[in-house]
Amino acid sequence: MTPATNASSTESTVDGGDMLAPWWRRGVVYQVYPRSFADANGDGTGDVNGLRARLPYLAELGVDAVWINPWYTSPLNDGGYDVADYRNIEARFGSLADAEAMISEAHELGIRVICDLVPNHTSSEHEWFKEALAAEPGTASRARYHFRPGRGENGDEPPTDWTSVFGGPSWTRTTNVDGTPGDWYLHLFDPTQPDMNWTNAEVRAEFVSILRFWLDRGVDGFRVDVAHGLAKDMSFPDLGEATGDILVSEHKDNHPYWDRDDVHPIIREWRAVLDEYEGDRMMVAEAWVRPERLPLYVRPDEYHQSFDFDFLTCEWNADSFRNTIDTSLAQARLVNSTVTWVLSNHDVVRHPTRYGLPQGTDWRRWLLDGPHDILDAEAGKARARAVILLVLGLPGSSYLYQGEELGLPEVWDLPPEVLDDPVWTLSEGTRKGRDGCRVPIPWTADGASFGFVEGDTAAAWLPMPASFGPLSAEAQAGVEGSSLELYRSALAVRKMHFAADEALTWLESPDGVLAFQRGSGAQVWVNVSGGTAPLPEGATLLVASHAEVAKNGALAPNQSAWILP
Ligand code: NOJ
Predict the structure, then answer these.
(1) Residue 531 falls within a domain, yes or no?
(2) Is the beta carbon of 78 within 6 A of some atom in ligand 1?
Protein backbone atom coordinates (compact mmCIF):
# COMPACT_ATOMS: atom_id res chain seq x y z
CA MET A 1 0.00 0.00 0.00
CA THR A 2 1.45 3.36 -1.04
CA PRO A 3 1.28 5.84 1.81
CA ALA A 4 0.75 9.50 1.02
CA THR A 5 3.72 11.05 2.78
CA ASN A 6 1.68 13.63 4.60
CA ALA A 7 -1.46 15.67 4.22
CA SER A 8 0.07 18.71 2.59
CA SER A 9 1.99 16.75 -0.03
CA THR A 10 -1.19 15.15 -1.37
CA GLU A 11 -2.02 17.75 -3.96
CA SER A 12 -4.92 16.16 -5.68
CA THR A 13 -7.38 18.63 -7.16
CA VAL A 14 -11.06 17.97 -6.84
CA ASP A 15 -13.30 18.18 -9.84
CA GLY A 16 -17.00 18.22 -10.38
CA GLY A 17 -17.67 20.13 -7.17
CA ASP A 18 -19.32 23.39 -6.44
CA MET A 19 -16.69 25.34 -4.57
CA LEU A 20 -19.10 28.25 -4.25
CA ALA A 21 -21.52 26.44 -1.95
CA PRO A 22 -22.06 28.36 1.28
CA TRP A 23 -19.50 27.37 3.91
CA TRP A 24 -21.97 25.68 6.26
CA ARG A 25 -23.10 23.07 3.70
CA ARG A 26 -19.82 21.24 4.19
CA GLY A 27 -18.29 23.02 7.15
CA VAL A 28 -16.76 21.33 10.17
CA VAL A 29 -17.90 23.00 13.37
CA TYR A 30 -16.25 22.54 16.78
CA GLN A 31 -18.59 22.70 19.76
CA VAL A 32 -17.31 24.59 22.79
CA TYR A 33 -18.98 24.08 26.16
CA PRO A 34 -17.59 27.28 27.71
CA ARG A 35 -17.80 26.16 31.31
CA SER A 36 -15.49 23.24 30.58
CA PHE A 37 -13.21 24.38 27.78
CA ALA A 38 -10.49 26.58 29.29
CA ASP A 39 -10.36 28.77 32.38
CA ALA A 40 -8.28 31.94 32.04
CA ASN A 41 -9.16 33.64 35.34
CA GLY A 42 -8.37 30.79 37.72
CA ASP A 43 -11.79 30.25 39.33
CA GLY A 44 -12.17 26.66 38.15
CA THR A 45 -14.86 27.53 35.58
CA GLY A 46 -14.08 27.92 31.89
CA ASP A 47 -14.52 31.37 30.37
CA VAL A 48 -14.49 33.41 27.19
CA ASN A 49 -10.88 34.51 27.66
CA GLY A 50 -9.88 30.88 28.05
CA LEU A 51 -11.52 30.20 24.71
CA ARG A 52 -9.75 33.20 23.17
CA ALA A 53 -6.40 31.80 24.31
CA ARG A 54 -7.16 28.47 22.62
CA LEU A 55 -8.33 29.83 19.28
CA PRO A 56 -4.92 29.15 17.67
CA TYR A 57 -5.31 25.49 18.74
CA LEU A 58 -8.66 25.35 16.93
CA ALA A 59 -7.21 27.04 13.87
CA GLU A 60 -4.41 24.46 13.81
CA LEU A 61 -6.93 21.67 14.23
CA GLY A 62 -8.51 22.95 11.03
CA VAL A 63 -12.16 23.58 11.88
CA ASP A 64 -14.29 26.07 9.99
CA ALA A 65 -16.37 27.36 12.90
CA VAL A 66 -17.04 27.11 16.61
CA TRP A 67 -20.46 26.71 18.15
CA ILE A 68 -20.47 28.10 21.67
CA ASN A 69 -23.01 26.68 24.11
CA PRO A 70 -24.95 29.44 25.93
CA TRP A 71 -22.60 32.04 27.37
CA TYR A 72 -25.27 34.49 28.46
CA THR A 73 -26.08 35.75 31.96
CA SER A 74 -27.48 32.74 33.78
CA PRO A 75 -27.71 31.10 37.18
CA LEU A 76 -26.33 28.01 35.36
CA ASN A 77 -29.00 25.73 36.78
CA ASP A 78 -28.99 23.94 33.43
CA GLY A 79 -25.45 24.75 32.33
CA GLY A 80 -26.55 28.09 30.81
CA TYR A 81 -29.69 26.87 29.02
CA ASP A 82 -31.46 29.00 31.61
CA VAL A 83 -30.85 32.47 30.24
CA ALA A 84 -31.48 35.52 32.42
CA ASP A 85 -30.23 38.11 29.90
CA TYR A 86 -29.82 37.24 26.22
CA ARG A 87 -27.80 40.37 25.52
CA ASN A 88 -25.04 39.94 28.05
CA ILE A 89 -22.41 37.39 29.07
CA GLU A 90 -22.53 35.40 32.30
CA ALA A 91 -20.12 37.13 34.73
CA ARG A 92 -18.37 33.80 35.50
CA PHE A 93 -17.61 33.53 31.77
CA GLY A 94 -16.49 37.13 31.24
CA SER A 95 -17.98 40.26 29.71
CA LEU A 96 -19.67 41.36 26.52
CA ALA A 97 -16.41 43.04 25.55
CA ASP A 98 -14.61 39.68 25.93
CA ALA A 99 -17.21 38.05 23.70
CA GLU A 100 -16.84 40.76 21.06
CA ALA A 101 -13.07 40.36 21.15
CA MET A 102 -13.46 36.59 20.84
CA ILE A 103 -15.67 36.95 17.76
CA SER A 104 -13.24 39.23 15.99
CA GLU A 105 -10.16 37.17 16.94
CA ALA A 106 -11.85 34.02 15.68
CA HIS A 107 -12.64 35.76 12.41
CA GLU A 108 -9.04 36.86 12.06
CA LEU A 109 -8.06 33.20 12.27
CA GLY A 110 -10.66 32.22 9.67
CA ILE A 111 -12.99 30.63 12.24
CA ARG A 112 -16.70 31.48 12.15
CA VAL A 113 -18.74 31.80 15.33
CA ILE A 114 -22.12 30.22 16.04
CA CYS A 115 -24.00 31.21 19.20
CA ASP A 116 -26.67 29.21 20.98
CA LEU A 117 -30.19 30.62 20.84
CA VAL A 118 -32.47 29.41 23.64
CA PRO A 119 -36.00 30.41 22.68
CA ASN A 120 -38.16 27.74 24.31
CA HIS A 121 -37.66 29.00 27.84
CA THR A 122 -35.95 31.71 29.83
CA SER A 123 -34.43 31.46 33.28
CA SER A 124 -36.78 32.20 36.15
CA GLU A 125 -34.28 35.00 36.86
CA HIS A 126 -35.14 36.70 33.57
CA GLU A 127 -36.77 40.15 34.08
CA TRP A 128 -39.86 39.04 32.17
CA PHE A 129 -40.47 36.08 34.43
CA LYS A 130 -39.90 38.07 37.60
CA GLU A 131 -42.36 40.64 36.26
CA ALA A 132 -44.84 37.88 35.44
CA LEU A 133 -44.68 36.41 38.93
CA ALA A 134 -45.33 39.82 40.43
CA ALA A 135 -48.27 40.47 38.08
CA GLU A 136 -51.90 39.43 38.38
CA PRO A 137 -53.23 36.43 36.42
CA GLY A 138 -54.51 37.40 32.99
CA THR A 139 -52.09 40.33 32.53
CA ALA A 140 -49.84 41.01 29.55
CA SER A 141 -46.78 40.23 31.68
CA ARG A 142 -48.05 36.73 32.30
CA ALA A 143 -49.08 36.20 28.67
CA ARG A 144 -45.41 35.85 27.62
CA TYR A 145 -45.29 32.51 29.44
CA HIS A 146 -47.79 29.69 29.95
CA PHE A 147 -49.65 30.32 33.19
CA ARG A 148 -52.82 28.25 33.74
CA PRO A 149 -55.16 27.65 36.63
CA GLY A 150 -54.78 24.29 38.29
CA ARG A 151 -57.34 21.51 38.15
CA GLY A 152 -59.23 19.99 41.03
CA GLU A 153 -61.39 21.66 43.63
CA ASN A 154 -58.82 24.17 44.83
CA GLY A 155 -56.75 24.25 41.68
CA ASP A 156 -54.10 22.24 43.45
CA GLU A 157 -53.59 19.74 40.66
CA PRO A 158 -51.44 20.64 37.65
CA PRO A 159 -53.26 21.86 34.51
CA THR A 160 -52.15 18.80 32.47
CA ASP A 161 -50.41 15.49 33.06
CA TRP A 162 -47.25 16.62 31.22
CA THR A 163 -43.96 15.70 32.86
CA SER A 164 -40.62 17.46 32.65
CA VAL A 165 -37.91 16.10 30.36
CA PHE A 166 -35.61 16.08 33.38
CA GLY A 167 -38.11 14.32 35.66
CA GLY A 168 -41.07 15.33 37.84
CA PRO A 169 -44.09 17.42 36.80
CA SER A 170 -43.73 20.09 34.12
CA TRP A 171 -45.91 22.55 36.03
CA THR A 172 -45.04 24.50 39.18
CA ARG A 173 -47.58 26.38 41.22
CA THR A 174 -47.06 30.07 41.94
CA THR A 175 -47.91 32.01 45.06
CA ASN A 176 -50.03 35.12 44.69
CA VAL A 177 -48.81 38.46 46.00
CA ASP A 178 -51.18 38.05 48.97
CA GLY A 179 -49.61 34.71 49.84
CA THR A 180 -52.45 32.48 48.58
CA PRO A 181 -51.70 29.64 46.13
CA GLY A 182 -51.93 30.88 42.54
CA ASP A 183 -51.78 29.64 38.95
CA TRP A 184 -49.29 27.15 37.60
CA TYR A 185 -46.58 27.80 34.99
CA LEU A 186 -45.23 25.39 32.41
CA HIS A 187 -41.60 24.24 32.28
CA LEU A 188 -40.76 21.33 30.02
CA PHE A 189 -37.33 21.28 31.67
CA ASP A 190 -36.20 22.50 35.11
CA PRO A 191 -38.67 24.52 37.25
CA THR A 192 -36.24 27.43 36.81
CA GLN A 193 -36.76 27.27 33.01
CA PRO A 194 -40.30 28.59 32.36
CA ASP A 195 -41.53 27.97 28.80
CA MET A 196 -42.30 31.00 26.69
CA ASN A 197 -45.57 31.47 24.88
CA TRP A 198 -44.72 31.57 21.20
CA THR A 199 -48.19 32.74 20.20
CA ASN A 200 -47.33 36.02 21.94
CA ALA A 201 -46.30 38.85 19.59
CA GLU A 202 -43.94 40.40 22.14
CA VAL A 203 -42.03 37.13 22.49
CA ARG A 204 -41.66 36.89 18.73
CA ALA A 205 -40.47 40.47 18.41
CA GLU A 206 -38.02 40.06 21.28
CA PHE A 207 -36.27 37.11 19.65
CA VAL A 208 -35.96 38.90 16.34
CA SER A 209 -34.30 41.70 18.25
CA ILE A 210 -31.96 39.23 20.05
CA LEU A 211 -30.98 37.70 16.71
CA ARG A 212 -30.15 41.16 15.38
CA PHE A 213 -28.18 42.01 18.52
CA TRP A 214 -25.76 39.14 17.89
CA LEU A 215 -25.80 39.34 14.10
CA ASP A 216 -24.79 42.99 14.44
CA ARG A 217 -21.86 41.82 16.56
CA GLY A 218 -20.70 39.63 13.72
CA VAL A 219 -21.81 36.15 14.70
CA ASP A 220 -22.15 33.80 11.75
CA GLY A 221 -25.05 31.76 12.99
CA PHE A 222 -27.13 30.21 15.71
CA ARG A 223 -27.67 26.74 17.05
CA VAL A 224 -31.32 26.75 18.09
CA ASP A 225 -32.21 24.91 21.28
CA VAL A 226 -35.31 22.67 21.46
CA ALA A 227 -36.17 23.80 17.93
CA HIS A 228 -39.02 21.30 17.74
CA GLY A 229 -40.64 22.35 21.01
CA LEU A 230 -41.60 26.02 20.77
CA ALA A 231 -45.23 25.59 19.67
CA LYS A 232 -47.64 24.15 22.19
CA ASP A 233 -51.19 22.91 21.71
CA MET A 234 -52.90 25.89 23.31
CA SER A 235 -55.88 23.77 24.33
CA PHE A 236 -53.49 22.00 26.72
CA PRO A 237 -54.75 18.42 26.39
CA ASP A 238 -53.45 15.63 28.59
CA LEU A 239 -50.67 13.59 27.00
CA GLY A 240 -51.40 10.24 28.59
CA GLU A 241 -47.72 9.31 28.91
CA ALA A 242 -44.53 10.61 30.52
CA THR A 243 -42.44 13.04 28.47
CA GLY A 244 -39.35 10.92 28.95
CA ASP A 245 -35.95 11.87 27.66
CA ILE A 246 -35.63 14.74 25.20
CA LEU A 247 -33.09 12.72 23.27
CA VAL A 248 -35.70 10.62 21.57
CA SER A 249 -37.00 11.24 18.07
CA GLU A 250 -40.14 9.11 18.17
CA HIS A 251 -43.15 11.14 19.20
CA LYS A 252 -46.80 10.40 18.73
CA ASP A 253 -48.62 12.33 16.01
CA ASN A 254 -50.11 15.66 16.97
CA HIS A 255 -48.05 15.70 20.13
CA PRO A 256 -49.06 18.69 22.29
CA TYR A 257 -45.54 20.16 22.32
CA TRP A 258 -43.04 18.27 20.18
CA ASP A 259 -42.72 18.87 16.46
CA ARG A 260 -45.92 20.82 15.90
CA ASP A 261 -46.46 22.47 12.53
CA ASP A 262 -46.78 25.86 14.20
CA VAL A 263 -43.01 26.03 14.76
CA HIS A 264 -42.40 26.59 11.05
CA PRO A 265 -43.74 30.16 10.68
CA ILE A 266 -41.44 31.14 13.56
CA ILE A 267 -38.43 29.65 11.79
CA ARG A 268 -39.34 31.42 8.56
CA GLU A 269 -39.50 34.74 10.35
CA TRP A 270 -35.96 34.22 11.71
CA ARG A 271 -34.67 33.05 8.37
CA ALA A 272 -35.85 36.26 6.73
CA VAL A 273 -33.87 38.22 9.32
CA LEU A 274 -30.68 36.23 8.70
CA ASP A 275 -31.09 36.60 4.97
CA GLU A 276 -30.94 40.39 5.32
CA TYR A 277 -27.33 40.08 6.54
CA GLU A 278 -24.30 39.53 4.35
CA GLY A 279 -21.91 36.63 4.70
CA ASP A 280 -23.83 33.34 4.71
CA ARG A 281 -25.23 33.57 8.23
CA MET A 282 -26.89 30.31 9.24
CA MET A 283 -28.99 28.45 11.80
CA VAL A 284 -28.77 24.84 12.89
CA ALA A 285 -31.70 23.19 14.62
CA GLU A 286 -31.63 20.89 17.59
CA ALA A 287 -34.74 19.01 16.57
CA TRP A 288 -35.31 15.51 17.92
CA VAL A 289 -37.90 14.44 15.35
CA ARG A 290 -38.60 11.42 13.18
CA PRO A 291 -36.34 11.19 10.09
CA GLU A 292 -39.24 11.85 7.73
CA ARG A 293 -40.05 15.08 9.58
CA LEU A 294 -36.49 16.44 9.58
CA PRO A 295 -36.57 17.80 5.98
CA LEU A 296 -39.41 20.12 6.98
CA TYR A 297 -36.98 21.97 9.23
CA VAL A 298 -34.39 22.49 6.49
CA ARG A 299 -36.62 23.68 3.69
CA PRO A 300 -34.99 26.51 1.72
CA ASP A 301 -36.69 29.24 3.78
CA GLU A 302 -36.20 27.61 7.20
CA TYR A 303 -33.13 26.30 9.06
CA HIS A 304 -29.94 25.77 7.08
CA GLN A 305 -29.08 22.62 9.02
CA SER A 306 -30.54 20.22 11.57
CA PHE A 307 -28.43 17.73 13.52
CA ASP A 308 -28.83 14.14 12.39
CA PHE A 309 -29.49 12.47 15.72
CA ASP A 310 -30.40 9.18 14.06
CA PHE A 311 -26.80 8.86 13.01
CA LEU A 312 -25.62 9.73 16.51
CA THR A 313 -27.75 6.96 17.97
CA CYS A 314 -26.64 4.28 15.45
CA GLU A 315 -25.26 1.08 16.95
CA TRP A 316 -21.76 -0.11 15.97
CA ASN A 317 -23.22 -2.08 13.14
CA ALA A 318 -22.73 -1.67 9.37
CA ASP A 319 -26.42 -2.00 8.46
CA SER A 320 -27.43 0.52 11.05
CA PHE A 321 -24.88 3.04 9.72
CA ARG A 322 -25.63 2.40 6.08
CA ASN A 323 -29.41 2.58 6.43
CA THR A 324 -29.20 5.81 8.37
CA ILE A 325 -26.73 7.35 5.94
CA ASP A 326 -28.93 6.42 2.96
CA THR A 327 -32.10 7.71 4.61
CA SER A 328 -30.48 10.92 5.77
CA LEU A 329 -28.89 11.69 2.40
CA ALA A 330 -32.17 11.02 0.60
CA GLN A 331 -34.16 13.17 3.02
CA ALA A 332 -31.69 16.05 2.70
CA ARG A 333 -31.77 15.87 -1.08
CA LEU A 334 -35.55 16.28 -1.07
CA VAL A 335 -35.10 19.87 0.08
CA ASN A 336 -31.68 20.54 -1.46
CA SER A 337 -30.05 20.52 1.94
CA THR A 338 -27.06 18.59 3.26
CA VAL A 339 -26.82 16.32 6.27
CA THR A 340 -25.36 17.58 9.55
CA TRP A 341 -23.46 14.66 11.08
CA VAL A 342 -22.64 14.52 14.75
CA LEU A 343 -21.27 11.83 17.07
CA SER A 344 -21.19 13.53 20.46
CA ASN A 345 -22.35 16.65 22.22
CA HIS A 346 -22.89 17.97 25.75
CA ASP A 347 -26.09 15.92 26.18
CA VAL A 348 -25.00 12.40 25.30
CA VAL A 349 -22.50 9.81 26.52
CA ARG A 350 -19.23 10.40 24.64
CA HIS A 351 -18.99 8.08 21.65
CA PRO A 352 -15.78 6.17 22.58
CA THR A 353 -17.75 4.95 25.59
CA ARG A 354 -20.99 4.31 23.67
CA TYR A 355 -19.15 2.21 21.10
CA GLY A 356 -17.47 0.24 23.88
CA LEU A 357 -20.82 -1.03 25.16
CA PRO A 358 -22.54 -4.14 23.84
CA GLN A 359 -25.18 -3.44 21.21
CA GLY A 360 -28.58 -2.69 22.63
CA THR A 361 -27.25 -1.15 25.85
CA ASP A 362 -29.24 1.91 26.89
CA TRP A 363 -26.17 4.06 27.53
CA ARG A 364 -28.08 6.73 29.47
CA ARG A 365 -29.29 4.14 31.96
CA TRP A 366 -25.99 2.28 31.95
CA LEU A 367 -24.24 5.31 33.50
CA LEU A 368 -25.93 4.64 36.80
CA ASP A 369 -27.33 1.14 36.50
CA GLY A 370 -24.31 -0.60 34.94
CA PRO A 371 -23.11 -3.29 34.99
CA HIS A 372 -19.95 -1.32 34.35
CA ASP A 373 -17.74 -4.28 33.58
CA ILE A 374 -19.48 -4.73 30.21
CA LEU A 375 -17.59 -1.70 28.92
CA ASP A 376 -14.82 -2.61 26.47
CA ALA A 377 -12.96 0.71 26.57
CA GLU A 378 -10.26 -0.44 24.11
CA ALA A 379 -12.82 -1.41 21.46
CA GLY A 380 -14.62 1.87 22.03
CA LYS A 381 -11.39 3.80 21.55
CA ALA A 382 -10.55 1.97 18.33
CA ARG A 383 -14.06 2.46 16.99
CA ALA A 384 -13.99 6.17 17.78
CA ARG A 385 -10.82 6.47 15.69
CA ALA A 386 -12.39 4.51 12.86
CA VAL A 387 -15.72 6.33 12.85
CA ILE A 388 -14.27 9.81 12.52
CA LEU A 389 -13.05 8.91 9.03
CA LEU A 390 -16.59 7.78 8.24
CA VAL A 391 -18.11 11.04 9.46
CA LEU A 392 -15.57 13.37 7.91
CA GLY A 393 -15.69 11.36 4.68
CA LEU A 394 -19.44 11.79 4.23
CA PRO A 395 -20.94 14.60 2.17
CA GLY A 396 -22.35 17.38 4.30
CA SER A 397 -21.37 19.17 7.46
CA SER A 398 -19.97 17.72 10.72
CA TYR A 399 -19.99 18.92 14.29
CA LEU A 400 -17.20 17.85 16.64
CA TYR A 401 -17.65 18.03 20.40
CA GLN A 402 -14.78 19.52 22.39
CA GLY A 403 -12.32 16.86 23.51
CA GLU A 404 -13.40 14.24 20.99
CA GLU A 405 -10.26 15.06 19.01
CA LEU A 406 -8.35 13.92 22.11
CA GLY A 407 -10.34 10.69 22.27
CA LEU A 408 -11.83 11.60 25.66
CA PRO A 409 -14.18 8.95 27.01
CA GLU A 410 -17.23 9.58 29.20
CA VAL A 411 -16.32 10.03 32.88
CA TRP A 412 -19.11 7.70 33.93
CA ASP A 413 -17.95 7.22 37.52
CA LEU A 414 -18.32 10.78 38.84
CA PRO A 415 -19.49 10.48 42.44
CA PRO A 416 -23.07 11.63 43.17
CA GLU A 417 -21.95 14.53 45.34
CA VAL A 418 -20.31 16.36 42.41
CA LEU A 419 -23.16 15.89 39.94
CA ASP A 420 -24.54 19.22 38.74
CA ASP A 421 -27.01 18.28 36.00
CA PRO A 422 -30.61 18.93 37.17
CA VAL A 423 -31.47 15.51 35.73
CA TRP A 424 -29.84 13.92 38.78
CA THR A 425 -31.94 15.77 41.36
CA LEU A 426 -35.19 15.97 39.39
CA SER A 427 -35.09 12.26 38.65
CA GLU A 428 -34.50 11.74 42.37
CA GLY A 429 -31.20 10.04 41.78
CA THR A 430 -32.53 7.53 39.25
CA ARG A 431 -30.77 9.06 36.19
CA LYS A 432 -27.18 10.16 36.33
CA GLY A 433 -27.45 12.97 33.80
CA ARG A 434 -24.91 14.58 31.53
CA ASP A 435 -21.99 15.64 33.73
CA GLY A 436 -19.75 12.81 32.52
CA CYS A 437 -19.41 14.33 29.05
CA ARG A 438 -18.90 17.83 30.46
CA VAL A 439 -15.72 17.17 32.46
CA PRO A 440 -13.18 19.91 31.60
CA ILE A 441 -10.62 19.54 28.83
CA PRO A 442 -7.08 18.46 29.76
CA TRP A 443 -4.59 20.79 28.08
CA THR A 444 -1.39 19.68 29.82
CA ALA A 445 -0.13 16.26 30.90
CA ASP A 446 0.26 17.32 34.56
CA GLY A 447 -1.16 19.76 37.06
CA ALA A 448 -4.15 19.85 39.40
CA SER A 449 -6.48 20.58 36.48
CA PHE A 450 -4.26 19.41 33.62
CA GLY A 451 -3.93 23.01 32.49
CA PHE A 452 -7.68 23.58 32.26
CA VAL A 453 -7.28 26.28 34.91
CA GLU A 454 -4.59 28.67 33.68
CA GLY A 455 -1.50 28.04 35.82
CA ASP A 456 -3.29 25.15 37.60
CA THR A 457 -4.02 27.41 40.56
CA ALA A 458 -7.35 25.77 41.34
CA ALA A 459 -9.29 22.58 40.81
CA ALA A 460 -11.70 22.39 37.89
CA TRP A 461 -15.45 22.72 38.65
CA LEU A 462 -15.87 18.98 37.98
CA PRO A 463 -13.15 16.53 39.04
CA MET A 464 -10.90 15.35 36.22
CA PRO A 465 -9.67 11.74 36.30
CA ALA A 466 -5.93 10.95 36.32
CA SER A 467 -6.43 9.17 32.99
CA PHE A 468 -6.98 12.58 31.36
CA GLY A 469 -3.26 13.53 31.69
CA PRO A 470 -2.00 11.23 28.92
CA LEU A 471 -4.97 12.29 26.80
CA SER A 472 -4.16 16.00 27.12
CA ALA A 473 -3.55 18.14 24.07
CA GLU A 474 0.06 18.62 25.22
CA ALA A 475 0.66 14.88 25.48
CA GLN A 476 -0.75 14.25 21.99
CA ALA A 477 0.41 17.23 19.93
CA GLY A 478 3.04 16.20 17.41
CA VAL A 479 2.85 12.55 18.46
CA GLU A 480 2.40 10.38 15.41
CA GLY A 481 -0.61 8.15 15.72
CA SER A 482 -2.26 10.15 18.50
CA SER A 483 -5.96 10.88 18.28
CA LEU A 484 -5.26 14.61 18.01
CA GLU A 485 -2.91 14.08 15.06
CA LEU A 486 -5.45 11.77 13.40
CA TYR A 487 -8.07 14.53 13.59
CA ARG A 488 -5.61 17.14 12.36
CA SER A 489 -4.62 15.13 9.31
CA ALA A 490 -8.20 14.05 8.59
CA LEU A 491 -9.39 17.66 8.66
CA ALA A 492 -6.58 18.74 6.34
CA VAL A 493 -7.13 15.90 3.88
CA ARG A 494 -10.89 16.40 3.99
CA LYS A 495 -10.44 19.90 2.61
CA MET A 496 -8.64 18.47 -0.41
CA HIS A 497 -10.70 15.38 -1.17
CA PHE A 498 -14.08 15.48 0.52
CA ALA A 499 -15.28 19.05 0.85
CA ALA A 500 -15.83 20.13 -2.73
CA ASP A 501 -18.88 18.11 -3.70
CA GLU A 502 -21.72 16.09 -2.26
CA ALA A 503 -21.61 12.91 -4.36
CA LEU A 504 -21.44 9.46 -2.75
CA THR A 505 -21.38 6.07 -4.48
CA TRP A 506 -21.40 2.88 -2.46
CA LEU A 507 -18.76 0.32 -3.49
CA GLU A 508 -18.81 -3.47 -3.46
CA SER A 509 -17.37 -4.57 -0.16
CA PRO A 510 -17.29 -7.56 2.18
CA ASP A 511 -20.12 -7.96 4.71
CA GLY A 512 -19.85 -5.51 7.55
CA VAL A 513 -17.56 -3.17 5.67
CA LEU A 514 -18.75 0.29 4.65
CA ALA A 515 -17.08 1.50 1.47
CA PHE A 516 -17.97 4.44 -0.71
CA GLN A 517 -16.43 6.76 -3.23
CA ARG A 518 -16.80 10.52 -3.29
CA GLY A 519 -16.92 12.84 -6.30
CA SER A 520 -13.17 13.47 -6.14
CA GLY A 521 -12.49 9.75 -6.56
CA ALA A 522 -11.29 9.37 -2.98
CA GLN A 523 -12.73 6.41 -1.12
CA VAL A 524 -13.77 5.77 2.48
CA TRP A 525 -13.44 2.24 3.92
CA VAL A 526 -14.63 1.40 7.43
CA ASN A 527 -14.47 -2.08 8.90
CA VAL A 528 -17.42 -2.58 11.22
CA SER A 529 -17.17 -6.40 10.93
CA GLY A 530 -15.34 -8.86 13.14
CA GLY A 531 -12.95 -9.99 10.36
CA THR A 532 -10.10 -8.53 8.33
CA ALA A 533 -10.98 -6.59 5.18
CA PRO A 534 -8.40 -6.08 2.42
CA LEU A 535 -8.17 -2.65 0.82
CA PRO A 536 -8.08 -2.38 -2.99
CA GLU A 537 -4.67 -3.30 -4.33
CA GLY A 538 -2.42 -0.52 -5.47
CA ALA A 539 -4.38 2.15 -3.67
CA THR A 540 -2.72 5.21 -2.15
CA LEU A 541 -3.43 5.62 1.52
CA LEU A 542 -4.49 9.15 2.42
CA VAL A 543 -5.29 8.69 6.11
CA ALA A 544 -5.70 5.59 8.25
CA SER A 545 -7.31 5.29 11.63
CA HIS A 546 -4.49 3.00 12.82
CA ALA A 547 -0.80 2.78 11.89
CA GLU A 548 -0.93 -0.95 10.96
CA VAL A 549 -3.26 -0.28 8.04
CA ALA A 550 -0.40 0.97 5.86
CA LYS A 551 1.72 -2.10 6.60
CA ASN A 552 -1.09 -4.63 6.19
CA GLY A 553 -2.90 -3.11 3.23
CA ALA A 554 -6.00 -4.27 5.05
CA LEU A 555 -8.37 -3.18 7.78
CA ALA A 556 -8.52 -5.17 11.00
CA PRO A 557 -11.85 -4.91 12.88
CA ASN A 558 -12.62 -1.33 14.03
CA GLN A 559 -10.23 0.26 11.55
CA SER A 560 -10.83 2.64 8.67
CA ALA A 561 -8.99 4.38 5.87
CA TRP A 562 -9.26 7.04 3.21
CA ILE A 563 -7.65 5.95 -0.03
CA LEU A 564 -7.18 6.95 -3.63
CA PRO A 565 -7.74 3.82 -5.74
C1 NOJ B 1 -31.12 20.93 24.83
C2 NOJ B 1 -29.76 21.30 25.33
O3 NOJ B 1 -28.79 20.76 24.48
C4 NOJ B 1 -29.69 20.75 26.73
O5 NOJ B 1 -28.39 20.81 27.25
C6 NOJ B 1 -30.66 21.52 27.58
O7 NOJ B 1 -30.69 20.96 28.88
C8 NOJ B 1 -32.07 21.47 27.00
N9 NOJ B 1 -32.08 21.66 25.59
C10 NOJ B 1 -32.93 22.53 27.62
O11 NOJ B 1 -32.53 23.79 27.19
Answers:
(1) no
(2) yes
